[in-house]
C-alpha cells in the first residue's frame, strides 16, 4: 500500500478552509504525501477538495461535483464510487443528482463523532480525534490504580449518572481543575475512563495511551468509531448503556476486571499509537491508518458507463 497507492486530487475551485485542526492536518498530510499523483490515469482514488467556509451544504457540494463532472471524465466512469471527500460533520441527503451520487457512492472522511445520520458505516471513514497521546504503556502485570474509574467534568453530560458518580468513592470525578493531581496522574491512576458518546469522547486516545481502558456510555450502536476496519473495539473498550445508572456500570466493570482487564489495558495502550497525528506523518500513525482504510476501499463497487448513460 505505502508504495503503490495513488490518489489524484482535483484542483480546488477556491481557497480551502476547514472546520477543525484534524481536518487541516489530514488535508495537509495528504496533499504533501507521495500518495498524490499528477497523472489521474494511474490513480486508485480521486479526492474532491471541498471548502468549509460555512459548513458543507448540499447545494455547495452539488455545484462542485457538477463542475468536476463537466470538466473531467473520472466521476462519470464510476458515478463517484472511486472518489472521496473530507467533511468534518458529514453531508446530508439531497435531491440533486450530484449529491445523491456523492452520498451513496463516494467515501466520506469525517470527524469523530460524526453528526447522527450522516455516516454510512460500510463506506465512510472517521478521523481519529486529535489528542495529546503519550508513549503507550507496555509494561506487563497489574496496573496499580487508585480508582476504578476516572471522569472529567465534561466527559459525561447525563446529570443523573454524574450525580451518582460524584457520590461513589470508587470513581474520581474532576469537576474543576485541581493542583492536587495532574490530568495525566488521574489517567494513569484509574483502571477505566468514562465517556458519554458525544463530542467530548475525543479524549479517548489520551486515555488509552495511559492504560486507562475507555468506557463508552451509549444507548445505541456506534457506527463511526475510528479505524473500525483495523481495530477490534470490543477488545480495547467497554460499551454500556445509561439506563442502569452507575450500579450497572460498576457491575459490567467488575466483570471486566475479573475476566479481561489486563488484556484490554495492554491492547488499548498499544492501539493508542494509531491515534497520534504528526505534522510530518510517521508509520502507523493516524494519517497512515486512515490512508490504509481508504486503500481497502479502492475496490468499492464500480458502475459501468452504460448504467448511467
TrEMBL record:
Record flagged with keyword Cell membrane: no
Record-linked InterPro entries: Exostosin, Exostosin_GT47
Domain annotation Exostosin GT47: ranges: 4-241
Family designation: Belongs to the glycosyltransferase 47 family.
The name this protein goes by in its record: Exostosin GT47 domain-containing protein
Topological relation to the membrane, as annotated: Single-pass type II membrane protein
A molecular function GO annotation: glycosyltransferase activity
Coiled coil: none
Domain of life assignment: Eukaryota
Cellular component GO terms held in the UniProt record: Golgi membrane
Compartmental location: Golgi apparatus membrane
Keyword list, A-Z: Glycosyltransferase, Golgi apparatus, Signal-anchor, Transferase, Transmembrane
Pfam families (UniProt xref): Exostosin_GT47
Keyword Cell membrane among UniProt keywords: no
